Amino acid sequence: MLPYPDASRALATPVEFPDESCAIRSFSIDTRTLRKGELFIALPGERSDGHDHVIAAFRRGASGALVQKKRQDGVVKALRQEGLTPRNILAVEDPAAAMASLARHYRDGLSVKTIVITGSVGKTTTKEFLHFLLKQKYPTLATEGNLNNHLGVPIMISRIKPDHAFAVLEAGASHAGEIDYLASMIRPMSAILTPIGPAHLQGFGTLENVYRAKTEVLRYLSTDSPMVVPVHDERLHQLLRDSGKRFIRAGSSARADYRFSDVRVRNGMVRFKVNETSTFSFPGQASFLALNATLAIALADQLGVSIAEMPPEWTDLELVSGRFCETVLPNGIRVIDDSYNASPLAFATAIEAFRKITANGKKILVFADMLELGADEVCYHREIGEKIALSGIDAAYAFGDRSRNSIDVIRERSREILDARHFSSADDLVSALGKLLRPGDLVLLKGSRGMRVEKVLAGIERIGF
Fold it and tell me: Range(s) for CATH 3.40.1190.10 in the chain?
């Protein structure tokens, strides 16, 4: 916990209506999930202004509120009108910036070892794998949900407790400078860089800029900090060599320091070997996640959880929904939901994994646009069309303006996929699927988060036979 007098000194602003009987348990920006004792951060906004929710925050047990100076009097007046006693009000010019400053201040007083995970694809699953392995031996905190940006990272830092040995924090970015900003709060002592590829190009501009952005974390790592990276990325390796940083390679190549091999999917489990001797397995069908698991194994081994101590079967590991998770619906249709997000690299990996999975019925790919790809978005969608055309599936249905380019290529190049169609909306696509699907069919859902491909899953669930 962070005492309010400490927060006052860190922000160089007085505590109005001080109540020393309580301290800051952690931060909250959402009254719907606020827990008793948390500091409510009133973020200004056009669609929803946090200052309009301070009353709700205090009713839910907030220990105080961080507000804009110009809104302070109005907040206090509103609280009193509702019969609530104002307490521990911190008034600043910019609540979001102040929250980051408080996170830095709190982090600097902790002995916890922080680990940052960044990259273009696979950050969340790698984080889950590493959290699972470290907590076998040490008290460990990990990023929850999508709290990996300029607002989420300080919230997660505020949830670190003094008895945590490790904190595994995910850092996402769509513009240059964001990783630097997040790492300045995290103060990492080690890192994992997951595969880097074309993603958020609308913000980054070029793939080269993506590499520069993801490696902004390097300035916060010492020369001997353990950092694990994919073995296949020579461009990244050169950047790391130029920086003088130590790095450990994980992957399927013989050049890897931690090499995975013999990947098999059986009975709902992905099994693989590491360095030819140790066998591990985790739930699901996503064989490509053997790389993410090996990245985590490598760093956990470096941080004190030896490979010999790691459980061989990770049956109690729960991966996040929307990331190649299979469900057998009551109507007998199998659905692999990989709709959380999509980039060219992630899409290609999902197609390859889908190709290897057997099905009693038809194999159908349902997809939507990959967003934020900038000027080359047509090219990337046509390249994905090429990969789908060679995948051996039975049908490809898509919606979204950009995905039309993929369907055009599939129709041009594939003689096997006879049913490749583009639809003007997800609802039209679901209507057509209702006529195509039968029990035993296997459907893969893929698309950027903004396309809300999960709507198709809800539609498939309603199909009856």
Answer: 110-309
